[in-house]
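re: that chain from earlier
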Amino acid sequence: MASEAEMIDLTTLPPIDCPCGIARRAFADRPEFPGTVHLTDISRDAREHFHQTHTEVYVILSCSPGAVIELDGIPHKVKPLTAVLIPPGVRHRAVGEMRTLIICNPNFDPTDEIF
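^ sequence. v structure.
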C-alpha cells in the first residue's frame, strides 16, 4: 500500500526554541522519509555545536548582510539560496539573522546536539 502525499505549511507548525533561534519541524513521523524538515529563524548568534549522527543541509532563504555559517571555526559568507551540507562531526553555527530551511537526516534528535 502506497503512502499518501502530505503538504504542510511550515509557518503554521508550533515554534520550538533551539540553540539557533526558533525551529518549526515537519515530517518526523513519516516512516518512508528518514529525516525531518525544519524552518528555522536564526535571530541571534547560534551556539556552536555538532552532531554525532545527523547530516544537515542548510538552505538559506533570507539573511542579513554579512551573515555567515561557521564550519569548524571558519566563517563562510552566505546569501539567499546558498545550500550548505554539514556532515556529522563538523562544528557549526550561524552568525547573523537568517531564515533557513534545514533538512536533517536521520530524524532530528535533540540529544544529538553536542555543545
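The CA atoms of residues 60 and 81 lie 5 Å apart.
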